[in-house]
Amino acid sequence: MLSGKWKIRIIGSLSFGKKRFMELIANIEGIAAKMLSKELQELELNGLVKRTVLETKPITVQYELTGYGRSLKPIIDEMAVWGKQHRKNIIKEMTTS
Amino acid sequence: MLSGKWKIRIIGSLSFGKKRFMELIANIEGIAAKMLSKELQELELNGLVKRTVLETKPITVQYELTGYGRSLKPIIDEMAVWGKQHRKNIIKEMTTS
DNA sequence: CAGGATCCTACCGGATACTG
DNA sequence: CAGTATCCGGTAGGATCCTG
């Protein structure tokens, strides 16, 4: 369900609130439109993300986590915690060697 | 670091204690020897798992988590919790439809 | 028992160009 | 803006066989 290179990052980004397609592109460094599009479709299929087309001009699309998607928050949070600590350790290694 | 199809399962299995190669094969349904071998090597390279060759006959090899590997426990635990709940939801869907 | 060596295939993921 | 279409290479990962 979270397979692929970008899904975790996407969910992480959406956990801060609704976002439009372009905002996600800007927010997630390195992702290409095609990848974002494909990953979002899979996330929607799995019921983790809700897609809403806004009738603006030109049209914009909002993405947000569903309740189901938010249920992953504990996992994502733990990953964030670990990543932070991990980076600290790397820096410590660099400065001590 | 946790890339690949099996690393999470391997760490999960090792979180219950040391295990030999065959025990891991038996414990992780569906994994082939080659895959287990490759994933374990990567885990060892990343310092998450410690490999110990026991001079029995024939030789056996013990794998265990390092302290670093155990630092992932909160993440794995949260995943386990989520997976359990997820399965409950699936079953509920099946019985109500 | 614990694995390496080979072979093979699907699909992951990037670049680019195009559309309503 | 928010995608889709197309092309393409690399590699993840499975099956099978072999070895100390």
Overview of this protein structure:
2 copies of one chain form a homodimer. Chain A has 97 residues and is of the alpha+beta class. Chain A has one domain: Arc Repressor Mutant, subunit A (Orthogonal Bundle). Helix content of chain A is 58%, strand content 14%. Chain A is elongated, with a radius of gyration of 16 Å. The mean pLDDT of chain A is 93. Chain A binds chain B through residues 71-72, 74-75, 78-79, 81-82, 85, and chain B through 71-72, 74-75, 78-79, 81-82, 85. Chain A binds a DNA duplex (20 and 20 nucleotides) through helix 2 and helix 3.
| Total of helices of chain A | 5
Known CATH architecture of chain A: Orthogonal Bundle
Uncertain spans of chain A, ≥5 residues at pLDDT below 50? none
**Terminal residue distance of chain A:** 40 Å
Q: Quick gist of this model?
A:
Two copies of one chain form a homodimer. With 97 residues, chain A is of the alpha+beta class.
Give the topology.
The structure is a homodimer of 97-residue chains.
Chain A: H1 7-14, E1 19-20, H2 21-27, H3 33-45, E2 49-54, E3 60-65, H4 67-70, H5 73-96
Antiparallel strand pairs in A: 1-3, 2-3
Chain A binds a DNA duplex (20 and 20 nucleotides) through residues 3-6, 20-22, 25, 32-38, 53, 56-61.
Structural descriptors:
homodimer, 97 residues, alpha+beta, Arc Repressor Mutant, subunit A, DNA-binding
